[in-house]
Design goal:
There is one protein chain. This protein has 9 helices and 6 strands, in the order ααββββααααααββα. By secondary structure, it is mainly α. The strands form 3 sheets. A two-stranded antiparallel ribbon has the order 1-2. Helix 7 packs antiparallel against helix 8.
Length: about 260
Amino acid sequence: ITQPMFEHYEFNGDQAFLRKTAYPMMKESSQFVLDILIRDQKNRLVTSPSYSPENNYVDPVTGKGSKLTYAPTMDMEIINDLFIRTSAAKILHQDVKFADTLSNTMKQLVPVQLAKDGSIQEWVEDYKETEPGYRHVSHLFALHPGDQITPLKTPELFEGARKTLAKCLKMGERVRDGAGLGPSISLSALKTEMQLTNTSLPCSKKALHQTCLICILLSRSMATLAILLALPRCYCKVRKGRLETVPSNYCRRFRLSGQQEV
């Protein structure tokens, strides 16, 4: 919830808004997270109990589907995103010690991990999924709407995100709702920025059109928002504090008309 608050500041540079509105919310949210984190058997800081939204894993002991766990990847990604943005508020020249606390805490969190198949690991352990390749890729939060996974900063994790989305298609899940399309569009946009050749999005323009229409008709606001947040990455990028447009020859890969895939 606090992520758009800081992004609002990043967009307009309004330090008064950051000081009076965004930062207090971000700080209180961070304080809440600090209060609920506990140590696991490996002395890492984790959330518990928790679960990965809409997906189950196979309990290695009972062999049955289970939902409850601790430190699911999405939790760790959200916490990192919150702490990074809250720490960035040091530009206000206040709460320096608190920012240091957040930085030290992040070092003790369970990191984003790769599964045996090279995809992003969804849970704290590399459990089997009850529905392999499930379309709700909540564990790609760090790719979208977050920005912790990028081709330049974390190339191995970025490749893991690609494999995660590819697995959804291989297992028969169509990446056609906001949960899957948001990360898919972001992945393709980021790869195109690097001028890579294999940047095709794992869905067609027809699928995107249908998904947007279905989301609107069914009032699926979260899914619609995920798509709308991802699409701008196809056309612009932020570099060294500046908003730059992507060259037109890149944009052609993302046009919603003609025969191209978006």
